[in-house]
Amino acid sequence: VSRFEDVAMAPPDPILGVSEAFRACTNESKLNLGVGAYRTEDLQPYVLNVVKKAEKLMLEKGENKEYLPIEGLAAFNKATAELLLGADNHSIQSQRVATVQGLSGTGSLRLAAAFINRYCPNSKVLISSPTWGNHKNIFNDAGVPWSEYRYYDPKTVGLDFEGMIADIKAAPSGSFILLHGCAHNPTGIDPTPEQWTKIADVLEEKGHTPFFDVAYQGFASGSLDEDAFSVRLFVERGFEVFVAQSYSKNLGLYSERIGAINVICSSSGVANRVKSQLKRLARPMYSNPPVHGARIVANVVGDPNLFSEWKAEMEEMAGRIKNVRKRLYDNLSQKDKSGKDWSFILRQIGMFSYTGLNTSQSENMTNKWHVYMTKDGRISLAGLSLAKCDYLADAIIDSYH
Ligand SMILES: Cc1ncc(COP(=O)(O)O)c(CN[C@@](C)(CC(=O)O)C(=O)O)c1O
Description:
Number of strands: 13
Oligomer: single chain
Largest sheet: 7 strands, mixed
Structural class: alpha/beta
Helix content: 40-55%
Number of helices: 16
Radius of gyration: 21 Å
Distance between the termini: 51 Å
Bound molecules: the ligand Cc1ncc(COP(=O)(O)O)c(CN[C@@](C)(CC(=O)O)C(=O)O)c1O
């Protein structure tokens, strides 16, 4: 008998497991609105033109495959911090940013969680309710305690701002507050600039540390700078800030696993020491990160023509999702005779729409209509085409009532 006889079968991942189920489905009407991965109007995966151009350049250069330093490719680390904060940001000018290339957003979050576990053992992280499903797994496995702050208000299908503020105020001083930089996953609801200012006030009052998860910079509004507003506000206010970044969505580098953890510190001396300890945590975890994605980002951002072409492609991707969002809203409003107000769909931003469908209604979407989505009622608009909005609207109305 096997030594591992008692190892149980793990349940499918709530998000990535949806894609597995979609692939197994044979119905030709099937729609994959599960994983947040961009698709073109033809529902095909999209490799950005600038990525192809950068890879061609890289092939011509004939670069080697030597190990990267533990902290990653220097040109990438410089570019990623400047994209996030702006090259002229005071924190960069005064060398107060500790940047370590991570295994995309997930790996960067995990490395930061390992740091928190080791250096802030009595602190906990507050995460939004709801949040990206993998956040809980990451902090659980890193041994970092977490609790939730209210975020989504089902009555208004909007932000429960009062609840959010109250829960953050009630948390023990010095907690880490996990905030989505833009395009909140799964709700698509972001605080307004005024609300961000009030959130910063409460964190300052309580001595909490902001911990941003920036997985969609440039992909939400189409503007890199606009989508970095919240992070830059907190840095401007003088906070020490953790920021995890990902290039999965905005540069389409999903499987290249390219991202970074940035720790903006109050002095360059602290930044150097923090960076050295992040390296010490990374070495036994994966030793050093993969070079390919880092070179693509460095080449795209380092070349003015490629950089501006990238910005145009981000606007195009964000624009297609906005069009699909509008079309879905129009279809729902025209078809639904119940008088339900669907305008919340237009108020949401980014890749996802939080439909408000509950678990059994979401299951009806899949079982009866072959629409694959997460059980929390989230749909990825990136997997929807204008042509399919009519069908999706029928499915949603049927599942709601
Ligand atoms: C808020 C947030 N943070 C981090 C990540 C991590 O992405 P990365 O490791 O590829 O950089 C995701 C991706 N969330 C996706 C798009 C995919 C997933 O679940 O992994 C989602 O469907 O929610 C995310 O939505």
